[in-house]
Design goal:
Largest sheet: 5 strands, mixed
CATH topology: Spore Coat Polysaccharide Biosynthesis Protein SpsA, Chain A
CATH class: Alpha Beta
Radius of gyration: 19 Å
Number of strands: 13
Distance between the termini: 34 Å
Helix content: 25-40%
Strand content: 15-25%
Order of helices and strands: EHHEHEHEEEEEHEEHHEEHEH
Number of domains: 1
Number of helices: 9
Length: 307
C-alpha cells in the first residue's frame, strides 16, 4: 500500500497591513519591496501546477504567518471550486505559523526558521516534498520521482568551496560539518551543494536531526533575518545523505534565475519540463517585468498542455 506524500510550501504576502505591523514589531522599516518578502504574484500558480501535474499528492500545506495572509484563491481551491482539475486532486490545507512554530519565535519572517519546524505541522505525512513559492512543476511527475522504497530521491554535488564565501555558503559549510562530524567527516575546501529544487524529506529525519542537534539549532534561530548562524532545510538533506537514507536521483529541473536574461525568460519557461525555479534576487532591478513574464509564461504552458 502506497504511503501518502504531502507537499509543503511557505508563502508571504507583504501588502497585508497586519503582517506589516507584525514586521515592525521585530524590525524597523518596510519589508514590502525587500527581496526576501516581495511577491511576484505567482504563488497561486505554484499550487495549481502541483494540483495538475502531481495529483497523487495527498495534501498541499500552505504555510502562512497569520489569517490576514489568506488570499481569495486559497479559499476557492480549498473549497473545491477548481472543478477543471477533476476529482482526484490534493486537499488544500492552510497552516498558520502559531500552529507549528514555538511562540518564542513568533512573529516569524524568515524561511530557515520556518523550515526548522516543518515536522511539527499537524497531520503532516512521514513523506513530504518541501518547496519554495518560486518553484513550479510544468510536466507530470510521479511519486517515484521523489521517493523510492521509502527513501527520498536527492542529489548533492561536491564542489570547491569558495575562497571568499558569502553568508549562505558559510551557513551551508557550518551545517555540513555539524552533521558530517557526527559520522567522522570534516570539510574545509569542498562542500556538498544541494540543488535549489523541490526537496523530498522524511518527517522522521527532521525529528532525528532535532534529537542530535537541537541545542545548536535553537541557538542559531533568528525570527527575521537569515544569518550564517542559523540552519536551513538542507540540514535534513545532509542527514539523509550521511545516514545513507536516500536515492541518488532527482527530477528534471530548469533554473531560470539571474543567469537567464529577461528577454529569454519566457522561452526558458515554455521549453522547461519537470521543475522550473525562477529565483528572485536582490540585483534584479527589473523584477516586476520578470514577474509578469513568468506569470504569463506559466499560464501559457498550462494552456498549451491543456490543448
Amino acid at each position: 500500500m502506497k504511503q501518502p506524500i504531502d507537499f509543503v510550501v511557505p508563502m508571504v504576502f507583504p501588502d497585508d497591513p497586519k503582517w506589516q505591523d507584525d514586521f515592525r514589531l521585530r524590525n524597523s522599516g518596510n519589508a514590502t519591496e525587500h527581496v526576501r518578502w516581495r511577491s511576484w504574484g505567482t504563488e497561486e500558480l505554484t499550487v495549481r501546477c502541483v494540483m495538475r501535474f502531481m495529483p497523487w499528492v495527498r495534501t498541499i500545506y500552505i504555510l502562512l504567518a497569520r489569517e490576514s495572509q489568506v488570499q481569495p484563491w486559497m479559499k476557492e481551491l480549498s473549497n473545491g471550486a477548481n472543478e477543471a482539475h477533476g476529482a482526484n486532486e490534493p486537499t488544500i490545507r492552510l497552516c498558520f505559523h502559531d500552529k507549528f512554530i514555538p511562540k518564542e519565535y513568533l512573529p516569524c519572517f524568515t524561511s530557515p526558521t520556518i523550515e526548522m519546524f516543518l515536522h511539527r505541522i499537524p497531520g503532516l505525512a512521514e513523506q513530504f516534498v518541501y518547496a519554495n513559492d518560486d518553484m513550479f512543476v510544468l510536466s507530470p511527475l510521479e511519486e517515484y520521482d521523489f521517493f523510492k522504497d521509502g527513501k527520498p530521491c536527492q542529489s548533492l554535488r561536491e564542489k570547491a568551496y569558495p575562497v571568499r564565501p558569502n553568508v549562505f555558503q558559510r551557513k551551508c559549510m557550518k551545517q555540513q560539518n555539524l552533521v558530517g562530524g557526527k559520522f567522522g567527516y570534516h570539510f574545509t575546501d569542498r562542500w556538498l551543494k544541494n540543488r535549489h529544487c523541490f526537496a523530498p524529506i522524511l518527517k522522521s529525519c527532521c525529528e532525528a536531526v532535532w534529537r542530535e542537534f537541537g541545542q545548536e539549532i535553537s541557538a542559531g534561530i533568528s525570527p527575521v533575518w537569515r544569518t550564517e548562524f542559523s540552519y536551513n532545510q538542507y540540514i535534513y538533506v545532509l542527514w539523509q545523505h550521511f545516514t545513507g537514507n536516500f536515492i541518488q536521483e532527482t527530477p528534471t529541473q530548469t533554473y531560470a534565475g539571474k543567469k537567464v536574461a529577461t528577454a529569454d525568460l519566457r522561452a526558458t519557461i515554455l521549453s522547461a519540463n519537470g521543475v522550473v525555479c525562477i529565483n528572485d534576487n536582490a540585483i534584479e532591478h527589473d523584477w516586476q517585468i520578470r514577474a509578469k513574464i513568468a506569470r504569463e509564461a506559466i499560464m501559457a504552458k498550462l494552456m498549451m498542455i491543456d490543448d
